[in-house]
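Example 3.2
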Amino acid sequence: MFPVLGWILIAAVIIILLIFTCVSRCLSPVSFLQLKFWKIYLEKEQQILKSKATEHATELAKENVKCFFEGSHPKECNTPSVKEWQQISSLYTFNQKDQYYSMLHKYVNRKEKTHSIRSTEGDTVIPVLGFVDSTGINSTPGL
């Protein structure tokens, strides 16, 4: 009796998730091909960001170690501020008027350098765009 109820519960959950996925994709303001492009863009952006961050961290570490052993002062190295890191790490929201493919894309294209990019009028969270903030794309295994 209980195994049958368990299988019925599992089937019901799977059917509900399937219906939710279908409905959210049908109501999405983003087309299937644009969604594919978006995923490719994010993957490439993350690869390049990881590469540049590794390169920058290596240069900074080399400079600090050199200065430590030589007793000199380090040359200036431009590293983003905590506020800048927080802005590109915030939750992504979709805006049909200003379409950006990531928070980094939104950050570098902002109108005024002093304003926050976190939320503007017309921003909405679209379920089908959940991959933008997903840990699978934004995680950096091996770091």
